[in-house]
Structures are given as C-alpha cells and as structure tokens.
Design brief:
Length: 267
C-alpha cells in the first residue's frame, strides 16, 4: 500500500502491544480460513467479502478497510490480472480463476493484515507456478527479518527470485509497518537493493506482501473506481501477505495459523 497513517518513525512495539497485534493477526488469518470453503465457480466476490466481514464481526473485530480512504468493503479480492485492491462485488468466479483475498482486522485497537491466493477448480500449470513462486518470494523475504539485516534485503531477495523465474515484481505497492495503525513506517518494498533501508530490530512489526506478475511489472489503477490495480498487459498477478514480528532470533509470522514457519523459542 502507499498510504501512511503514521508517518514519523518506526514504532517498536512493547509486550502488551505485541500481544494485542498477535491476537488480531491470528483472527485475520482465521478469517481467510473461514472464506476458503466458499471459493468455487459461480460464487461472487461480494459473497466472499460478506463471509469475511461476518467472521470478523462475530469475533469482535472491525474490518480495517471499511471507510479507509473512502474504501467501502471489508476485504480486497483481486482476480486474475488484478494485482491488488480489487473491490468485491458482482463478479462471479469461474473455473480456472486465481484470486487473492486480503483482510485486515482491528481487534481491541490492534491491526493484523494478511492475504492468500485461492484457485477455482483446475488452473493452468502456468497459473499454479506463478502462485508457487510468489509464495516462495514471501518465504524468502521472511528469512531476512532478523536483527542487523536491513529492510532493503527483503525486497532484494524477493525480486531476485521473481526474476529468476521470468516474472516481474510490482514496485508501486509495498509492505508496511503495522499494529497500532494500518500503514506505519517502514515501507517494505518488494524490489530493493541489498543492504539499504532501516536496520531491522526486535519489536518491529511489518507486513511483507509481494505482488508478482507473469508479464510486465507496471500497475494501472482503474479510472472509474479509483482502486482496482491491474497489470498493464492483462497477464496474471499473484500475492501473499503476512504480518511479521521481528524477535531477537527468527521472526514470528503472526498471521501463520497453518504452522508453515518455525516459531522462535522463548528466551
Ligand atoms: N490490506 C491492504 C494491504 O495489504 C490494504 C488495503 S487498503 C484498501 O496493505 F483500502 F484498499 F482496502
Ligand atoms: Co498490508
Ligand atoms: Co493486506
């Protein structure tokens, strides 16, 4: 995202804040899991959005996107060539579609942000490979989240991996600090030079959310709705997002409820 709700400095979170953000992040991840069974051909993106909104509210959270800079939905749902900020609505999913669902919760004032890819029925091997490589890009980015590394190291490994597979990395939308506000410092770009940017420190919480395109990197925002960002060549785009806590050791992936990532041991 390119908005900044808190523009001054990177906020190092204390134990109480971390606990609150951990809970909110877990709920965001559970929201995506709740949506999963409903993803099938014939279902509208508006319906998936309603499932997500109901789940968040049933668990005491508010969708952070509602009313955010004029956005009116509880999630972003980005299908096929939509890179991000797809507005859920009447669009019906079809066999072979790939889509990203992105949700951000506010629970007791704390923010958690995550997104994942879904597939509708059988998708082409080409689409599946784009999804797999995008997941690998996020995983590689997460390996860089250790004290002493720098924010630019994250984008460096992500873009290197995307390019190795013949893909391109979107540079117009970035990850971001999160927790007390929706979009905090630092900006976490997915294309960057190694050894540049802020030094990564324990207590930082930020998202990594690479958007990887099958074709050209450029995004164009829909003139009519002001949000939907599409690839300029109509080719597919994929994205995964996690909210990450930097610790003294390995990062804690706060939105990982599937136990895909190792957990730092308590010191
Ligand atoms: N969840 C998105 C992100 O990852 C932001 C969506 S803002 C909205 O940063 F207004 F488009 F919803
Ligand atoms: Co985000
Ligand atoms: Co998000």
């Amino acid at each position: 995202m390119s908005f900044r709700d808190k523009n001054s400095k990177i906020i190092i979170k204390n134990a109480e804040q971390i606990d609150g953000i951990r809970r909110s992040s877990k709920l965001a991840a559970q929201t995506l899991k709740a949506v999963a069974p409903y993803v099938k051909a014939g279902v509208t993106t508006g319906y998936l959005n309603d499932i997500a909104e109901q789940f968040m509210r049933d668990h005491g959270a508010i969708p952070a996107t509602l009313g955010y800079h004029g956005y009116t939905k509880a999630s972003c749902i980005s299908v096929n060539d939509v890179i991000c900020h797809g507005i859920p609505g009447k669009l019906e999913l079809r066999e072979g579609d790939i889509l990203n669902v992105d949700v951000t919760t506010i629970l007791n004032g704390y923010y958690g942000d995550t997104s994942t890819m879904f597939t509708v029925g059988e998708v082409t091997p080409h689409a599946q490979q784009l999804i797999d490589v995008t997941q690998e890009c996020l995983d590689l980015g997460i390996t860089q989240c250790i004290p002493g590394k720098r924010i630019g190291d994250i984008g460096y490994v992500i873009n290197k991996h995307a390019v190795k597979h013949g893909y391109s990395t979107v540079y117009e939308f970035c990850g971001h600090g999160i927790g007390l506000y929706f979009h905090e410092e630092p900006e976490v770009c997915h294309v960057a030079e190694a050894n540049t940017g802020a030094v990564i420190q324990p207590g930082m919480i930020f998202t990594i959310e690479p958007m990887i395109n099958a074709g050209k990197a450029r995004a164009k925002v829909d003139k009519k709705d002001g949000w939907t960002a599409r690839t300029i060549d109509g080719k597919l785009s994929a994205q995964f997002e996690h909210t990450i806590l930097v610790t003294e050791t390995i990062p804690e992936v706060l939105t990982d409820i599937n136990h895909r990532y190792p957990v730092p041991s308590a010191i």
